[in-house]
Amino acid sequence: MKTRNKIVMIVMITAAFMMILAGCGNANKTYKIGVSQLVEHEALDAATKGFKAAVTDKLGEDHVKFEVKNAQGEQNNCTTIATGFVNEKVDLIMANATPALQTAAAATKDIPILGTSVTDYGAALNIKNFSGKTGNNVSGTSDLAPLDKQADMIKEICPKAKTVGILYCSAEANSAYQVTEISKCLKKLGMTPKKYAAADSNEVQSVTTKAAGECDALYVPTDNTMANSTETIKNIVLNKKVPLIAGEEGICKGCGVATLSISYYDLGYQTGLMAVEVLKDGKKPGDMEIKTADKVTKEYNPVIAKKLGIKIPKGYKAIK
Asked: Contact 312/164 with Cβ under 8 angstroms?
């Protein structure tokens, strides 16, 4: 009996010792995170910066290694980046923008993926009856500001506008979703929406010129192609004297009059906190709700508003 008790005690001590070692190993682990960013522009850059800050704040600089790669606006590059991360067996992939998310999700069903700067995960991942959780290895944050309030802003800034042209890239699934939804909102407010789609950045100039010549006001959703072409759009809308309302601050700063904006840095930071839950606490992305920005802010571009002679209502914050 004594021998048996000794054996049981040895087994228990060994198990406890192994648990301590496992805990120490986890505490000393350096996590490798692959960041796939679609393109360089203000909003996505801020999201990546916020993500890295959150993970570093919670895990410490010595316990995380980031590999940040930019696809330069090409979906094929996103695929190459995602495949590379899978081959390197990173601990987690952060996908910044919809094409980066789609290619990462296609590349692996095992490595945890967190998206940011993605509007609608159901549309992006082709999930029918999407309820807020993907049920697979993907979760993240959405950059969608309320579209009904954005439509209200168009009416507030451009009260005499009857026709609103919506500029977007047809290759971006989330842009198409926003176009459909805000069109419904504009119709309820008595305005007529008209869609103007560019297949890629090469078509932005011609599409914008056509829209500015046919509409009283323009709207651009959170579209990466348009965000990367704001200088081209600005020159056209200023020449035609047509006000443009943007879906996010970066686009508004480049070519718009006003926007209902979120902080992409805060959105990225929120995504980083989710990453810590996955890496440190063992949470599964498929069980985590897609999160949205905590607050939205009415903002305006004082330079463009002045050039177009538009008086901004009270309650708007000037973009610096």
From this structure: no
When pLDDT is averaged across residues 145-158 and rounded to a whole number, the result is 94
pTM for the whole thing?
A: 0.74
pLDDT 10s digits, 152-165 = 999 999 999 999 99
- CA pseudo-torsion sign 222, 225, 231, 237: negative
Note the pLDDT tens digit of each residue in 210-254. Answer: 999 999 999 999 998 999 999 999 999 999 999 999 999 999 999
Is residue 276 within 8 A of residue 114, CB to CB? The reply is no
8-state DSSP, 97: S
Q: At what angle do helices 98-107 and 173-188 cross, to 10 degrees?
A: 140
| Residue of 95, 75, 38 lying closest to 227 (CA atoms) | 38
The alpha carbon dihedral of 107, 113, 115, 120 has a sign of positive
Strand residues in the chain grouped as ranges (E): 31-37, 64-70, 92-96, 113-118, 138-142, 163-169, 192-198, 217-220, 244-246, 258-261, 291-292, 297-300, 317-318
User: How are strands ordered across the β-sheet holding 244-246?
Assistant: 192-198, 163-169, 217-220, 244-246, 258-261, 297-300, 317-318
Q: What is the spatial distance between Cα 11 and Cα 17, in angstroms, rounded to a whole number?
A: 10
Give yes or no for residue 80 having a pLDDT over 80: yes
Exposure string for 160-174, b = 16+ CB within 10 A, e = fewer: ebeebbbbbbbbbbb
Residue 296 near residue 259, CB atoms below 8 Å? no
Kindly report the length of the chain.
Answer: 320
Q: Which amino acid, 76?
A: N
pLDDT at 22: 47
State the Rg of the chain over Cα. 23
Residue 8's alpha-carbon distances to 4, 16, 19, in angstroms, are 6, 12, 17
Q: Give whole-number Cα distances, 1 to 4, 12, 150, 248, in Å.
A: 5, 17, 77, 74
Give the integer Cα–Cα distance in Å for 98 and 71: 12
